[in-house]
Every structure is written in structure tokens, then in C-alpha cells.
What we know:
Largest sheet: none
Radius of gyration: 20 Å
Order of helices and strands: HHHHH
Distance between the termini: 45 Å
Strand content: under 5%
Number of helices: 5
Helix content: 55-70%
Low-confidence stretches: 7-14
Shape: elongated
Structural class: mainly alpha
Number of strands: 0
Amino acid sequence: MSVPNATHATSRTAAPATTMGQKISAGAIGGVAGGVVFGILMAMMGMLPMIASMVGSTSAGVGFGVHLAISVLLGLGLTIPLGGTLSSYGRGAIVGLLYGGLWWVLGALLIMPLMMGMPAFAINAPALWSLMGHLAYGLVLGLIAVAALNRRN
């Protein structure tokens, strides 16, 4: 009687685990990429001075810098806890769109209006443009994060 060779039982190998460094890098790179796309839309809508007002400025350049800093932090907020689940571009796109939508509700409809003394959850034309920007941010973040997480050195 022969004994089967255990080394031929499976040809699959486990994918390497995603490291914290990869998650941080993916969040930062994806956050900047998504932030640039969203920032361009914000610049076209003239919204960067409003973002600058969060730090006491009216400069569009300062607003863009503040926006990019927030974009990186939010990118890390996606990839550090969920980086291991971003295993495909389809999943990255879906998770990114959902994450962008979540931050539209939390950031644009709740936190920002409350910081500026405006009514929360006001749905108007600028809010809908903001939704488009947040969805674009999330989509780009999710796709770039997947690419960065799948890159092996």
C-alpha cells in the first residue's frame, strides 16, 4: 500500500498578511490621490476658502492643504482597520464609495455645518456637489489602496 505524498495535496499558498506599514502607506497614498481629485472639484466650486476658515484663513491654498491633511487622515481611517479586506478592485471600489458616502454624512452634513454655525443635514445643491466629491474621493481612495496593498516589495 502506498502513502500519498502530502506535498502534492494542495498547490495553494497563503497570501502574505498585510502589514501595518502597508496599511499606513496605502491609506496615505490613497488619501492624497482621492484628496487631489476631490480638491480639484472643490476648487472649481470655490469651496476651498470655506475649508481654510477651519484654521482661521481665507486662502484657497491653505484650504487645499487642510483638505489634503483631512484626506490622508480619512485614508488611514479606512486602511488601518479594513486594509486586510481590500482584496480586489471591485471590493475596493464598493468599500471606497460607501466610505465616501459615510464621510459626506458625517463631515459635510454634520461636523462642518456645526463647526461653522450652520444647520446640520441641509440638503441643497452644494451638498449634492459635495456628495459627488466625497464619492469620487472614496472611489479613488479604495482603488489606490487596493493597488498599494497588492504591491509587494
